[in-house]
Design a protein that fits this description.
The complex is a heterodimer of chains A (about 120) and B (about 110).
Chain A: E1 3-7, E2 11-12, E3 18-25, E4 35-41, E5 47-53, E6 59-61, E7 69-74, E8 79-84, E9 93-103, E10 106-112, E11 116-120
Parallel strand pairs in A: 2-11
Antiparallel strand pairs in A: 1-3, 3-8, 4-5, 4-9, 5-6, 7-8, 9-10, 9-11
Chain B: E1 9-12, E2 18-23, E3 33-37, E4 44-47, E5 61-66, E6 69-74, E7 83-90, E8 96-98, E9 102-106
Parallel strand pairs in B: 1-9
Antiparallel strand pairs in B: 2-6, 3-4, 3-7, 5-6, 7-8, 7-9
Classes of the chains: A mainly beta (about 120), B mainly beta (about 110).
């Protein structure tokens, strides 16, 4: 059973870069067949998809965040990571990583990590 | 940008049927998915491809689609079903989008 766990600083200063890592257990990122996504949730608000990566390194980002987002993968550690640059208070959110199931014409997220709260504040 | 519209809240008594809708122009061409999120927890997939139920999800959860609206139906609602529910789909470019969420209150 695949499990995901986010890790990284819980506090980031404005204008700096937010960096998070998702460690996957119970399955190999390199086995293919799945994509790996980051999703965030502002406090008390809804969900926002950030982007995904495939084990080969191919990525796709939400156009609304594309200029500030980089998602990378380390197959040797079975991890994928998120970098969000030039953060402001508006980037304060719970950040989730999730397995992105893509089948022709279909795409859903299952399972999700437990989430990690990142606060942007000086 | 593409939007999925959900009612902010739905209330139902235990044992009754709850219906949560999600509307979007692309839904006739794209599948929809539903997630349940309880306070302090990560979302959990409850319906995929409009009406398929993952293993482990109770049979009282079902999904349907009609035109630009998809519906999550919870039959015989139980107190444990009280949660926020989010629909998800994609726009024509492949960007994943979530609805604003619906808070289900079990009276």
């Amino acid at each position: 059973q695949v499990q995901l766990q986010e890790s990284g600083p819980g506090l980031v200063k404005p204008s700096q870069t937010l960096s998070l890592t998702c460690t996957v257990s119970g399955g190999s990122i390199s086995s293919g067949g799945y994509y790996w996504s980051w999703i965030r949730q502002h406090p008390g608000k809804g969900l926002e998809w950030i982007g995904y990566i495939y084990y080969s390194g191919s990525t796709y980002y939400n156009p609304s965040l594309k200029s500030r987002v980089t998602i990378s993968v380390d197959t040797s550690k079975n991890q994928f990571s998120l970098k969000l640059s030039s953060v402001t208070a508006a980037d304060t959110a719970v950040y989730y990583c999730a397995r992105d199931v893509k089948i022709v014409g279909a795409n859903w997220f299952d399972p999700w990590g437990q989430g990690t709260l990142v606060t942007v504040s000086s | 940008s593409y939007e999925l519209t959900q009612p902010p809240s739905v209330s139902v008594s235990p044992g009754q049927t709850a219906r949560i809708t999600c509307s979007g122009d692309a839904l006739p061409k794209q599948y929809a998915y539903w997630y349940q999120q309880k306070p302090g927890q990560a979302p959990v997939l409850v319906i995929y491809k409009d009406s398929e139920r993952p293993s482990g999800i109770p049979e009282r959860f079902s999904g349907s689609s009609s035109g630009t609206t998809v519906t999550l139906t919870i039959s015989g609602v139980q107190a444990e079903d009280e949660a926020d529910y989010y629909c998800q789909s994609a726009d024509s470019s492949g960007t994943e989008v979530f609805g604003g969420g619906t808070k289900l209150t079990v009276l």
